[in-house]
Amino acid sequence: xxxxxxxxxRGNVFEALLKEYGFTCQQVGPHAFGSPFCxxxxxxxxxSGFADPKYYRVLPALEKNKEKVxxxxxxxxxxxxxxxxxxxxxxxxxxMKLKYHMHFKTKSVRLVRQDSPAALLAAPGGKxxxxxxxxxxxxxxxxxxxxxxxxxxxxHGKGHIIAAALHEYPERGFIExxxxxxxxxxxx
Length: 188
Prior knowledge:
alpha/beta, globular, 4 helices, ten-stranded mixed beta sheet, single chain
């Protein structure tokens, strides 16, 4: 069993970070995603740029397996979905209403909900943002100075969805929460 799964057809950019934090991270290719060859995990990471084929070619796999993603979350899994990196995008493969607009900028980000697990993702302050969320039915955990949400959180069943329009690796506290020994590894 592994702690985290990273959906990618271009290498595993999270493996070294999670190893540094004391956790394991497997790369899951789009063809293996949702198949019996995809090992159970606690955290499922969708990379920044997942909707633009010049960065990754994983969007068809997400769309094809949206029911499996929903079941993973309902049963206690955690999804960390980064910015789509296309002008406007609706995350219709997630079991929540979530719309995104791409706008690259280094901006000051402030914490709105300290009690949210998503608050563990990154410390407030100057952050590289690839956009912001224009609509959602979750809770805003972090926002830009103008109030535009950049980290959104929603509880779904026993699990959690965290969407982030930040170009930042998750901080240790977030990974320790998401991959804690008390959590069960689940099949996607």
